Amino acid sequence: MAGSVLEIKNLHVSIEDKEILKGVNLTIKGGEFHAVMGPNGTGKSTLASAIMGHPKYEVTEGSITLDGEDVLEMEVDERARAGLFLAMQYPSEISGVTTSDFLRSAINARREEGDGIPLMKFIKELDNDLDLLEIDQNMATRYLNEGFSGGEKKRNEILQLLQIKPNIAILDEIDSGLDIDALKIVSKGINKMRSESFGCLMITHYQRLLNYITPDYVHVMMQGRVVKSGGPELAKRLEDEGYEWIKAELGIEDTEESVEQNA
Amino acid sequence: MAKNAPEIEEYQYGFHDRDVSVFRTERGLTQKVVEEISRMKNEPQWMLDYRLKSLKHFYDRPMPQWGGDLTGLDFDEIVYYVKPSEKQGKTWDEVPDEIKQTFDKLGIPEAEQKYLAGVSAQYESEVVYHSLKEDLQEMGIIFLDTDTALQEHEELVKEYFGTVIPYSDNKFSALNSAVWSGGSFIYVPKGVKATSPLQAYFRINSENMGQFERTLIIVDEGASVHYVEGCTAPVYTTNSLHSAVVEIVVKKDGYCRYTTIQNWANNVYNLVTKRAVVDANGTMEWIDGNIGSKLTMKYPAIHLRGEGARGNTISIAIAGRGQVQDAGAKMYHLAPNTSSSIVSKSFSKQGGKVSYRGLVHFGRKADGSRSNIECDTLILDNESTSDTIPYNEIYNDNISLEHEAKVSKVSEEQLFYLMSRGLSEQEATEMIVMGFIEPFTKELPMEYAVEMNRLIKFEMEGSIG
User: Could you tell me which CDD domains the record lists for this protein (chain A) (predicted)?
Assistant: First the structure.
């Protein structure tokens, strides 16, 4: 099947009346891996949360469509069922709900009522993915994210990605707080998703994630906009030279606002 | 699942049957009513005397002024005794059709076949059906309604009746002692372990009905039993009253678990006194689920009077619109090296009010005893309230007491997280709530846990947004 298309046009987003995104344009198609990079406080995570519909973020202008459907009109759960997925930077802890019960509910939420995933199929696929991500089997019976280490939470996000199989995934700093071994494992999980029908938007500070997951496109965000796009070589140059050259090239000056956010 | 959901706030067990009762006393509480109840039951004189003594105490005793608001409770409007059928059935075929249908709807005969060792079904004032599996009978376990027990095992009943909870304990124990009818009597002989649960089911059908069952459980040395009770009633615009007394004696090395799933309609005052005494190295556990009623005031107590005795109470209370749950637990450490734990989980929604009211007492002899209390409250919206009112009475230095109380709200972040995985707001909230009460549901036998989850889901319908 042909992949989905997520189209973001002139997106303006505010939080508590303060404008964070000031006209973002981005198109992600099935089969493509995009990386969004940029200094702290430039709106990368805001972009991720706004696409998924976090209630704190208010879209004041612009559009987001998924295969032509207006995403902004959808509730958070409708966006998920339409094929979007957000791996969160800080996943919530849900006490009393086991990871496996939660996963099964999430999988079934995308299936027709009365057509839930058969238990044996679920267990088999879960076991496979746990093995792939080198997660201890007992995580399935632990309460969702409760008492998980930072690394365990990230692996759990990727476990959910593999299990839920969305059309378009946004990964918000999935590499933060991971040591190099964990980063490799998480990358292996993400790479497993690669196919013509899967599109991915990775948000990251660091080039090192991109050593393991090669993006087709790299975008640089500054002051609430995508200021530069290119191929994987752009990420390498950022790693080597930082962001200053872009600022110089594009004549961007640090505003008081962005300094404050960087603090 | 939401597609087949019932209408908002509908109470699933709110139906009522045509009145098929064969006898009922007039409204209001008089000496004549008490005498009539006793005569109908052909009781020994001592029991009638006890009832009358209790009645006098009930009249003399003022209404409690704490806990919930009892001003809407009119004792003159209540019908104190309704006899639903001529005799008790040993098979469901012997139960009058109308009543049998009610218990069918509640799923009792089905549950009995699947996993219960014995069943008692009380409708209004009397137990209309009773059974106990043969192997349990052969072990010497007595499981009867309390009226029949009084006829068949008078000495045993007399020895324990009113010893754990005297009629003068409080106004409602006095009321129950005056007009009690039905309830369960269980005796488990020394060393006998009942492997599957015994269940009693209490159903109120009539308007303004007062149900006053009286339960007495004696677990002899080294014996063990799990007793489960469930309760429902129809929805009426006027008030009904449920006021039970439950007395439990756990002897040395004995074990008793008492599980309640109370799901009364929103017009029922639920004012219950429950207490257990535990001898050396015995264990008592109250697993107490309070979902329905207009006002519940219930604080299951455990008196740890033998060295090394243990008491656990795990409770949940849910208060919705117009409901008050004033519930908690009491632990009395009266001997050395006793231990207790209280886990209370409550949540309120749509303006409901839920309070944890608890007491932990360490007596002078309670050397080396310890207690652990954990009270968690989840508030679903801004109209609802919760209170935690713990009392500690400590007369001994050599004890340990830990108390942890938490109040939380369903957070925006949690909802966003779950919804971003495709769960609707309703499903996400349900999941958070179910997780919150999981420490309670995991203590229930599987079948009840499933039922409990279904009830909670039902309670949650329409409470979002």
Answer: ABC_FeS_Assembly
Domain A5-91+166-262 class in CATH:
alpha beta
Query: Is the distance from CB of B79 to CB of B242 less than 8 angstroms?
Result: no
User: Domain range for residue B31?
Assistant: 9-298
What is the C-alpha separation between B21 and B100, in angstroms, rounded?
13
Minimum Cα–Cα distance from B438: chain A residue:
A96
Chain B positions in Cβ-Cβ contact with residue A81 (cut-off 8 Å): 422
Residue-wise pLDDT tens digits, B333-354: 999 999 999 999 998 888 899 9
What is d(CA B129, CA B201) in angstroms, rounded to the nearest whole number? 10
Distance from CA of A48 to the nearest CA of B (A): 12
In-domain check, residue B334: no
DSSP helix/strand/coil, A240 = helix
Euclidean distance between CA atoms B124 and A156, whole angstroms: 53
Contact yes or no for A95 and B438 at CB 8 A: yes
> Of B298, B313, B339, which closes a domain?
B298
Q: Is B423 in Cβ contact with A97 (below 8 Å)? A: no
Amino acid at site A231: G
Biggest CA-to-CA distance, chain B: 69
pLDDT tens for each residue of B228-287: 998 877 788 888 999 999 999 999 999 999 999 888 888 899 999 999 999 999 999 999
CB contact under 8 A, A80 and B424: no
Q: How far is B464 from chain A (nearest CA, A)?
A: 15
Same domain? B287 vs B427: no
Among the partner residues A76, A95, A110, nearest to B419 by beta-carbon distance: A76
Mean pLDDT of the residues in chain A? 92
Residues of chain A contacting B428 with CB distance shorter than 8 Å: 77
> How many angstroms separate the Cα of B163 from the Cα of each of B235, B245, B276?
35, 12, 10
Contacts of B365 (CB under 8 A, 6+ apart): B334, B335, B336, B396
Q: Do A94 and B432 touch (CB under 8 A)?
A: yes
Name the least confident of A68-82, B99-113, B291-305. Answer: B99-113
For A143, name the nearest residue in chain B, comparing CA atoms only: B435
Task: For residue A119, give Cα distances in angstroms to A81, A122, B453.
Answer: 21, 5, 20
DSSP state of A142: S
Question: Distance, in angstroms, between A56 CA and closest chain B CA?
Answer: 9
Domain boundary among B298, B320, B350: B298
Share of chain B above pLDDT 90, in %: 61
Selection from A23, A113, A224, A70 nearest residue B427 by Cα: A113
B427 and B289 in a common domain: no
Under an 8 A CB cutoff, do B421 and A52 touch? no
Number of domains in chain B: 2
Give the minimum alpha-carbon distance from B255 to chain A in angstroms, rounded to a whole number.
27
> Which among A19, A21, A18 is positioned nearest to A36, based on CA atoms?
A21
Q: Is residue B94 part of a domain?
A: yes
